[in-house]
Design goal:
The protein is an alpha+beta fold and about 130 residues long. The protein has one domain (about 30-129). It has helices spanning about 5-15, 20-25, 85-95, and strands at about 35-40, 45-50, 55-60, 65-70, 80-85, 105-110, 115-120, 125-129. The strands form two sheets. The protein has a four-stranded antiparallel beta sheet, covered by helices on one side.
Length: about 130
């Protein structure tokens, strides 16, 4: 698939510990979907997501070390990228009291902006239907 952002899975392929669930998220179709309610409970982030065909899902991020978001609720999304070397991880390492090794940065992008609307630093992820 030429032209697709291949760097989003390159970090995972090059990692000594590939994360199957993280690769699943990079293949998850976010186009025209929207994020609804977001809640953080005891280090687990629950992101309610509605697909373009109105299917409700919950994206669950575990052992969350940081979240950065800007006007994400009800915003249209174009893609999600997953990186092991995002600058957000470096900031969390400096500022967080939590252990930041083995963190993954999950970033959600708008079709109109060149910066992600939300970044989540977590150790793992799953989709609940």
């Amino acid at each position: 698939m030429e032209g697709k952002d291949t760097t989003m899975t390159k970090d995972l392929r090059d990692s000594k510990e590939p994360r199957i669930s993280s690769e699943t998220l990079t293949n998850f179709q976010l186009v025209d979907g929207q994020i609804g309610e977001i809640s953080l409970v005891n280090g687990t982030l629950y992101v309610h997501f509605q697909t373009d065909d109105e299917k409700d899902l919950i994206l669950v991020f575990t052992d969350v070390a940081g979240v950065e978001m800007f006007n994400i609720q009800n915003a249209e999304l174009s893609k999600c990228t997953v990186h092991l070397n995002d600058p957000f991880i470096e900031r969390a390492t400096k500022l967080s009291e939590k252990h930041t090794e083995k963190l993954v940065c999950y970033a959600f992008w708008s079709p109109w902006l060149e910066e992600p609307l939300m970044r989540i630093l977590a150790r793992d992820f799953e989709i609940q239907t």
